[in-house]
Amino acid sequence: MTTPAVSRYPVPKLEDLPDDIRARMLEEQEKAGFIPNVFVALAHRPDEFRAFFAYHDALMLRESGLTKAEREMIVVAVSGGNDCMYCFVAHGAILRVYAKNPLVADQVGVNYRKADITPRQRAMLAFALKVSERSGEIGDDDYAALRAHGFDDEDIWDIGNISAFFCLSNRMANLINLRPNDEFYLLGRVPKQK
Amino acid sequence: MTTPAVSRYPVPKLEDLPDDIRARMLEEQEKAGFIPNVFVALAHRPDEFRAFFAYHDALMLRESGLTKAEREMIVVAVSGGNDCMYCFVAHGAILRVYAKNPLVADQVGVNYRKADITPRQRAMLAFALKVSERSGEIGDDDYAALRAHGFDDEDIWDIGNISAFFCLSNRMANLINLRPNDEFYLLGRVPKQK
Amino acid sequence: MTTPAVSRYPVPKLEDLPDDIRARMLEEQEKAGFIPNVFVALAHRPDEFRAFFAYHDALMLRESGLTKAEREMIVVAVSGGNDCMYCFVAHGAILRVYAKNPLVADQVGVNYRKADITPRQRAMLAFALKVSERSGEIGDDDYAALRAHGFDDEDIWDIGNISAFFCLSNRMANLINLRPNDEFYLLGRVPKQK
Amino acid sequence: MTTPAVSRYPVPKLEDLPDDIRARMLEEQEKAGFIPNVFVALAHRPDEFRAFFAYHDALMLRESGLTKAEREMIVVAVSGGNDCMYCFVAHGAILRVYAKNPLVADQVGVNYRKADITPRQRAMLAFALKVSERSGEIGDDDYAALRAHGFDDEDIWDIGNISAFFCLSNRMANLINLRPNDEFYLLGRVPKQK
Amino acid sequence: MTTPAVSRYPVPKLEDLPDDIRARMLEEQEKAGFIPNVFVALAHRPDEFRAFFAYHDALMLRESGLTKAEREMIVVAVSGGNDCMYCFVAHGAILRVYAKNPLVADQVGVNYRKADITPRQRAMLAFALKVSERSGEIGDDDYAALRAHGFDDEDIWDIGNISAFFCLSNRMANLINLRPNDEFYLLGRVPKQK
Amino acid sequence: MTTPAVSRYPVPKLEDLPDDIRARMLEEQEKAGFIPNVFVALAHRPDEFRAFFAYHDALMLRESGLTKAEREMIVVAVSGGNDCMYCFVAHGAILRVYAKNPLVADQVGVNYRKADITPRQRAMLAFALKVSERSGEIGDDDYAALRAHGFDDEDIWDIGNISAFFCLSNRMANLINLRPNDEFYLLGRVPKQK
Fold first, then answer.
1. pLDDT score of D193
2. How far is CA B120 from CA A23, B117, B124, in A?
3. Which among D83, D111, D182 has the least Cβ separation from residue E111?
């Protein structure tokens, strides 16, 4: 079997890319040891690439009441709900690394209600999935339920916007048949490896 | 009754905003005669504001095999499916203006199958709604169906990505209770008015 | 483009109709300035026409604890849920006129939870949609919730029966591709016009 | 256990009813040996009663390309889909009597795909259930599928309108907790009995 | 019309069966007067037959806080939810016999909320259907709701496992088009008959 | 954090178990190096344990037109659809081992349409998921689709029955909060390990 394609669409060669996009890719390669395929595939449209990662970074790197591992939990739970293989696998890896926990990603991705997480985190994921699946029904009661767990309104924006952003991301990955890099599957599963 | 709020979250005053964001708002005001509330509400988070509108502009203003009216049809149909009042009303107005058609927005927003549009546009909207509602099931057959109507792969990316982007947008609007400006409801409905 | 048809089925000429049906149509024309297409299309079957409008009038014109505008809110919310373009557009117009409110119909039709209505009206619409979408689950708790808002049992019958009747009406409109008159789209939107 | 109520709402005494309604009830009693509870319960609102049965009779008694048994099949299949105990049980009885078949009602009510019916009848019920559950998606292909089985457009109106009318009826029965008469459960099951 | 088949798959002759399976069938024939078709059809695979009925007997014959009629209520309600004609009809008969109640099976199979059963039994069936339809959402609150009705944890295991076992059974019956014996339809409906 | 429980229910000690059940457990321990928690938890009810594993073995160990890896693909895809963490994780491990493929389990569990499998296997999983989620709609066309990929009727029984059996299994695991052994998460992911 030949190697399956990264995307339904042509993927540009590194040397053909605008400088800023190539720089971002090399930076990712430096950090992770490989370039995640989402960068490779979205580079097909440089302007959308820039906006996509600007949005991603604004949400995932900002100071927040949510830890980075909690933000990745949202990504993984939402991606499982949206049947998005790329984000389930790739962000599952990132979650394992951030949480230093080899089990939590599979748990949260399949059924967060059964995962080894805190009641506060369960409330966070229930809200994130409601934003993903029935956002029109979000109301004051949902805000109140999160506040009862100590989330403030900025945290709730973060939870909701991360869920919303990965609703975009999951759909793009499904649209273009984005393939996870093989490296992601094992990442964060073997203690010494990290 | 007092005027209902624009958003669950505080909205910044124009004079307190970063220059680039204030400039964008004034430009919108210039164009439309008022500042659409999505600008006002998202300015609460300047970095996310910039990424959101960069993404929006990359998709909605680019050269494309889809007309601007067709792109707005996608927005309105997807927003109806996601029970998003803001985007249904605001983009319904924009669609009426672009299409120079006072009826099409309500038609497409409630049930595109009954709308006065071409078979090609109906295929486009069927695909956009599948991306919105069951993106994990998108496959080769869906691509083939669009190609049979003359769409090429770049057009399909446009349809899918516009749908995906407004899946994000609809969820944010529902999350923060974003209120459409009163002006949108009538816009594009009365011939002379434009 | 030729004018799209009013219905998939033949529509009778006014002069070929039984006297009572023609009289009803002329009365509507008198009142509204045009004959709503639902009259034209359903006249294809005079006995069903008579029963349909007898049922409609029994519910919509009777003395009730619900105002006429509230009854139309139910129609519009249920029709939105059933993807019925005819009733969304036509009863949206009637709702705007009765409520003397150019915004409420679009709001209630897309997502009543975000509409500028009272909590009592929101409870009314939640019940109406449950009757429309999951009537088998209606139970004592649903009655209790409405009574807590001051509805008595006759009001609840009204809410439920209006929802049920438009579940019939929406399906007929979808079955026969019933087309809203162009006049409805603008009706009640421009203050002086009324 | 005391006899459970016929309806959540008060049921009028026969002697207190308007003459035409009492006459209809006595006629039903004559025919069936008992008054079906739907008459008793809906008499709570005489005008709606009259319209309801006028609609019912217009559809169920007219000359049609569908036999009476086929029309009752539609009722039973739709009522099963809507979780309506009254119509499932009461019209199941009527179907058994009309079809002279003690098995077909339970079959059609639970899963028409497995019932001992003709392919033409299966196509009829598939359409009826689509009208009941996803009427907004009814299109030319659905009409074509029925025409291929020999149904003409008037037959299709009958199928669709019977489905639509029992969508109303099922919701009313669920709303008021309409209880089937005990007699219905056995009717048409024992050959000699008829 | 020829007699419809018992199953999509070949059904073995009694004399060709392994002794233990033939013995079980003759025992059923002794008890009921006929061999239920589920025995005939599953005998196609003797090992699966043995495991299936061992599981069935372990659940349905054991000492339990649930009566045998209550266990059959679960079967009928779950089978209705799964559109399984065989189990709805066959276990409906068994339920009528155990409960000495000719009405309860149809009621519970179509809509348990409207059935003549106790609040405790309604809670039992709500749980059974949640296990059938959304088992991933079962949580502590569901256990608490049943305990409030006097069920202990072993009873809850019984409810859940009966529901789960008939989720298997319903799917097998649907897979192989398992046909209920004609005898089941009338069984337990006519008082003297038993 | 203390070690989370294996099950909501008490788990018996190895020495308190009936001989045959203890023997089966020790055999599993021999084979895998640990006792999968499904054995530990289901031993709470010895008779159900015996029937459950007899059914399991009859399906999963028999001669079949499906390879063992293909059978585990069905388990993993169905378990993903049913939000069952135990079976997703435990059978994901078994699938990786049988298929000698560290990637396929996550792929098939999240979205089999995007997995690196053959078209024949995709058809197999589409059928298995239809049995799991809409078994009442299985019909001749579904059989024909599988035969076109070379499956015979016994293979189709296998696919359907494995799906049905894990519908039982998934519900039991969700009911009792069955926890996957930590060992499963990594099994079959690291080449040399096998």
1. 46
2. 40, 8, 6
3. D83
F175, F176, F178: best mutation site toward chain E, by most E Cβ within 10 Å? F175
**Tokens at E28, concatenated:** 């059923």
Tens of pLDDT, residue by residue, chain B (194 residues): 567 899 999 999 999 999 999 999 999 999 999 999 999 999 999 999 999 999 999 999 999 999 999 999 999 999 999 999 999 999 999 999 999 999 999 999 999 999 999 999 999 999 999 999 999 999 999 999 999 999 999 999 999 999 999 999 999 999 999 999 999 999 999 975 44
Q: Quickly state the pLDDT bin for E34 (edges 50, 70, 90).
A: very high
- Which chain C residue has the Cα nearest residue D165? C168
Closest residue in E to C134 (Cα–Cα): E111
**pLDDT average, residue stretch D177-187:** 97
Left, alpha or beta for D74 (phi > 0: left; psi -120 to 50: alpha)? Answer: alpha
User: Scanning every residue of chain F, which has its alpha carbon at the shortest distance from the alpha carbon of B134?
Assistant: F111
Q: Which chain C residue has the Cα nearest residue B8?
A: C114
d(CA E128, CA E134): 10
Say if CB F138 and CB E174 are below 8 A apart: yes
> Contact F125/F105 with Cβ under 8 angstroms?
no
Numbered residues of chain B with Cβ closer than 8 Å to any chain F Cβ: 136-137, 139
Q: How many CB contacts within 8 angstroms connect chain D with chain E?
A: 65
Which chains neighbour F (Cβ–Cβ under 8 Å, 3 or more pairs)?
Answer: A, B, D, E
Residues of F in contact with A114 (CB under 8 A): 85, 174, 177, 179
Phi, psi dihedral angles at A132 (to 5 degrees): -70, -40
What's the pLDDT tens digit per position in D130-178? 999 999 999 999 999 999 999 999 999 999 999 999 999 999 999 999 9
Whether the pLDDT of residue A139 is over 60: the answer is yes
In the block, tokens 């409801």 appear at B185
Taking alpha carbons only, the member of C157, C178, C154 closest to residue C52 is: C178
Mean pLDDT along residues E27-43: 96
Burial of A126 (0-12, 13-18, 19+ CB in 10 A): middle
In angstroms, the separation between the Cα of residue E124 and the nearest Cα of chain D is 18
Are C110 and B103 in contact (CB < 8 Å)? no
Q: Collect all residues of chain D within an 8 Å Cβ-Cβ radius of residue E114.
A: 85, 174, 177, 179
What gap in Å lies between CA F134 and CA A191, rounded to an integer?
Answer: 42
Contact A110 F185 (CB under 8 A): no
Q: ipTM of the predicted structure?
A: 0.96
Q: What φ, ψ does residue D90 adopt, rounded to 5°?
A: -70, -50
Complete DSSP assignment for B59-101: HHSS--SS-HHHHHHHHHHHHHHTT-HHHHHHHHHHHHHHHT-
Q: Could you give the C-alpha distances from E169 to A92, B105, D107, E111, F170, in angstroms and in order?
A: 36, 48, 18, 20, 14
Residue F114: what pLDDT?
97
Is B13 in a helix, a strand, or coil?
Answer: coil
D83 → chain C, closest CA residue? C136
CA distances from D83 to C125, D106, D167, E107, E113 (A): 21, 13, 11, 10, 10
Q: Nearest Cβ partner of F182 from A1, A103, A110?
A: A103
The burial of E18, by beta-carbon neighbours within 10 Å (0-12 exposed, 13-18 middle, 19 or more buried), is given as middle
Q: Do chains E and B touch (3 or more CB pairs under 8 A)?
A: no
Rounded Cα–Cα distance for residues F33 and F52 (Å): 22
pLDDT at position B193: 46
Query: Tens digit of pLDDT for each residue in E106-132?
Result: 999 999 999 999 999 999 999 999 999
CB contact under 8 A, F171 and E167: yes
Q: Which of B45, B164, B174 sits opposite A168 (nearest CB)?
A: B164
pTM for this one?
0.97
